[in-house]
Design brief:
With 266 residues, the chain is α/β, with parallel strands linked by helices. It has 8 helices and 8 strands.
């Protein structure tokens, strides 16, 4: 295992089994991975990548994670979306792209892998900024989501703006701060949206320097107070990128969290 936690972002992985389009824009696509083995159909796992919504980070850095999930027997879709720093990225298309992908990918994946995808709503795995997008999708389209595994999610956009995470990432996404575009924050900030009806597991490393673990603690506490089905798993000695690295010491805990979602929602 590499001593550089960021190594997973550029680690080679097998090519996807298929790439499908869920819309007309070149970034409205997803890489699909066929589950290994001949077991019964499993519910689709949609991976929503992070990278602070910026164009320089795309779905390919989650290929090691997606490959590992497929080897565990899950059909996997790595959804792409328009990002900031490229034409059309940011508000509102980053959000609406993810909603469109979550809506269409179960059918597209079932067509690509006949007999491998269960009919139940998919599980969303979102990392970092992708955690915000997964939580947003579940809160605004609850019927489409069977559960959420939020890995070090940016679960409070207003707080992320105040903390200036990744040097203005939230302002680039939404076009300003909470005082300037309050309606945009109200529409997509997990910290202000009602809790989703889908079971949610938040996993966060205590050594995370990109997204503070306090954000997940506060999100889960507020979710409990509002009656949400959400739990927090804190991983000591884990930083930001180990959560998406199948070679990390944190990975078995991530797999257990996913198994708990797929079993409880079956």
């Amino acid at each position: 295992m590499s001593s550089d936690p960021r190594a997973v972002l550029t680690r080679p992985a097998p090519a996807p089994d298929a790439t499908v389009a869920y819309g007309p824009h070149p970034d409205q696509i997803a890489d699909l991975r066929r589950p290994t083995g001949a077991g019964p159909p499993e519910r689709l796992v949609i991976v929503v990548h992070g990278g602070f919504w910026r164009a320089e980070y795309d779905r390919r850095h989650t290929a090691p994670l997606a490959t590992a999930l497929a080897r565990l027997g899950y059909p996997v879709a790595q959804v792409e979306y328009r990002r900031t720093g490229q034409p059309g990225g940011g508000w509102p298309t980053t959000m609406t792209d993810v909603l469109a992908g979550v809506s269409k990918l179960p059918r597209l994946t079932a067509e690509a892998f006949p007999g491998a995808v269960a009919a139940d709503p998919p599980i969303l795995i979102g990392h970092s900024a992708g955690g915000q997008l997964a939580l947003y999708a579940a809160a605004t389209r609850p019927a489409l989501v069977g559960g959420i595994l939020a890995l070090a999610p940016v679960a409070n956009l207003a707080e992320a703006y105040r903390l200036d995470l990744d040097k203005g990432a939230v302002a680039a996404l939404l076009g300003g701060g909470p005082a300037e575009v309050p309606d945009r924050y109200a529409a997509c900030d997990p910290g202000s949206l009602p809790p989703t009806s889908s079971r949610t597991v938040v996993v966060h490393g205590t050594l995370d320097e990109q997204v503070p673990v306090t954000m997940s603690r506060e999100f889960v506490t507020a979710g409990h107070a509002a009656g949400g089905n959400v739990q927090l798993l804190e991983l000591p000695e884990c930083e930001h990128f180990g959560l998406i690295d199948p070679e990390s010491v944190a990975w078995p805990q991530v797999v257990l969290a996913l198994r708990s979602l797929t079993k409880s929602s079956s």
